[in-house]
Design goal:
The protein has six helices and no strands. With 179 residues, the protein is mainly alpha-helical.
Length: 179
C-alpha cells in the first residue's frame, strides 16, 4: 500500500473527535467505526484520482485547441482525439460513480476483510494511472507544439487509458465478488 493511501486513512483516523474515540472503545462498535473510516478514506482517494484526471482532461482540451489552429491537422486528429477524450471522460465518470470501497452494514455489495487490501491495491494503481495519463498528455502537447509524432502520442495515451479502464473494471469485479 502506498504512503499516500496510508496517509489518507491515518488522517481520517486521527481526526476522530473525543466522542468518536470513546465510542470506538465499545465492543462491536470499534470495528464498525473503523470500517466507516476506511470507507471515507476510499472515497477521498477516489475523489483525488478523479480530480487529477479532470486536470488531465483540461490539458487534453488545450492540446485539442492547439491542434485546431491548423485546419488540416484539426481534421486529421479530430476523431482519434475525440475517442481518447471520451475514454477519459468515461473513466472519470466510473471513478465518481463507483461504489465506496468498504461496504456498510446495509449495503448490497459487501466487501470481505481479505479483499480490502486488494481494493487498496486497485486504488493505488489508479493513482499511478492518473500520473501516467498526465505524462502522456504532456508528451502529446509537446508533440503538437513541435510538429512531432502526434499520432504516436495519441496511440500511447489511448493505450494508457485502456489499461486504466481495465484496471478499474477489475476493481468493480472484486467488489461484486467476481474475481
Amino acid at each position: 500500500m502506498s504512503k499516500e493511501i496510508v496517509d489518507i486513512y491515518s488522517k481520517i483516523k486521527g481526526d476522530a473527535s473525543g466522542l468518536e474515540q470513546l465510542l470506538a472503545k465499545l465492543p462491536g462498535l470499534a470495528g464498525y467505526m473503523e470500517r466507516e473510516q476506511r470507507r471515507a478514506a476510499d472515497q477521498l482517494l477516489r475523489q483525488t484520482v478523479a480530480a487529477r484526471l479532470e486536470e488531465a482532461r483540461l490539458a487534453l482540451s488545450e492540446v485539442h485547441q492547439a491542434l485546431n489552429r491548423d485546419i488540416v491537422t484539426a481534421i486529421t486528429y479530430a476523431e482519434p482525439l475525440g475517442r481518447v477524450d471520451n475514454k477519459l471522460m468515461g473513466l472519470i465518470g466510473k471513478i465518481h460513480d463507483a461504489p465506496v470501497g468498504y461496504a456498510g452494514f446495509f449495503d448490497a455489495v459487501k466487501v470481505r476483510e481479505e479483499d480490502l487490501a486488494r481494493l487498496y491495491d486497485f486504488d493505488e494503481q489508479m493513482v499511478v494511472y492518473a500520473e501516467q495519463l498526465a505524462l502522456d498528455i504532456a508528451a502529446l502537447a509537446k508533440a503538437a507544439r513541435e510538429d512531432g509524432e502526434i499520432a504516436q502520442a495519441i496511440e500511447v495515451l489511448n493505450g494508457s487509458l485502456t489499461a486504466a479502464n481495465e484496471a478499474f473494471i477489475g476493481r468493480g469485479a472484486l467488489l461484486l465478488g467476481i474475481e
